[in-house]
Structures are given as C-alpha cells and as structure tokens.
Amino acid sequence: MIIKRPLVTEKSTRQRDEENKVVFEVSRGASKTEIKRAVEEIFKVKVLDVKTIILPGKVKRFGRFVGKTSSIKKAILKLRPGDKIEFFEGV
C-alpha cells in the first residue's frame, strides 16, 4: 500500500486552497512515480508534480523511559488546475 493517509493540517489546507496541492503520508519505499501513479488511479486526477520529504521521528519521554516516534515520508502533490481531492465533503 503506497498511500497511507492524507495529512490534514493548517498548512496543507492552505496549500490545497491556494496552490491546488494535496499532502499524503506514503510508505517509506515508494518512489515519486509510484506515488503519482497510485494517486491518479485512486482519485482519478492528473498529478503535475510530486515532492517528497522524510520527517525524522521525535524523541519522547514517558516518565523515566525514553522512546522515539516513527519517521514518516510525506508527499506533496500538485494537481492539474480544475482537479480536486476532497477529504471532508459537507463538513
């Protein structure tokens, strides 16, 4: 499974509204072409550009125990003008 979930934050919402970009969490081993192909098949849209970034996990303390959260890979996809992906329609 290449696409894990959409990332809905203030920044990603602004990018979706102003620049027609959507943000997904993707699997670590996925390439840009695989991500593009998967999104085009699932959502029936045309992807113009794919940018990826790996966010390192954070160190967290739980009392006297120290742990680390998982690293994630994030993909920012620019869609063709007129195409849209709505995550929360009618909310």
Summarize the structure.
The model has no long low-confidence stretch (mean pLDDT about 95).
How would you describe what is shown here?
- This protein has 91 residues and is α+β, with helices and mostly antiparallel strands.
- Helix content is 24%, strand content 38%.
- It contains 2 helices and 6 strands.
- The strands form 2 sheets. It has a 4-stranded antiparallel sheet. Strands 4-5 form a two-stranded antiparallel sheet.
- The model has no long low-confidence stretch (mean pLDDT 94).
Secondary structure layout plus pairing:
Elements: E1 3-6, H1 10-19, E2 21-26, H2 32-43, E3 47-55, E4 59-62, E5 65-68, E6 72-79
Antiparallel strand pairs: 1-2, 2-6, 3-6, 4-5
Name the descriptors.
alpha+beta, 91 residues, two-stranded antiparallel sheet, 4-stranded antiparallel beta sheet, 6 strands, 38% strand, 2 helices
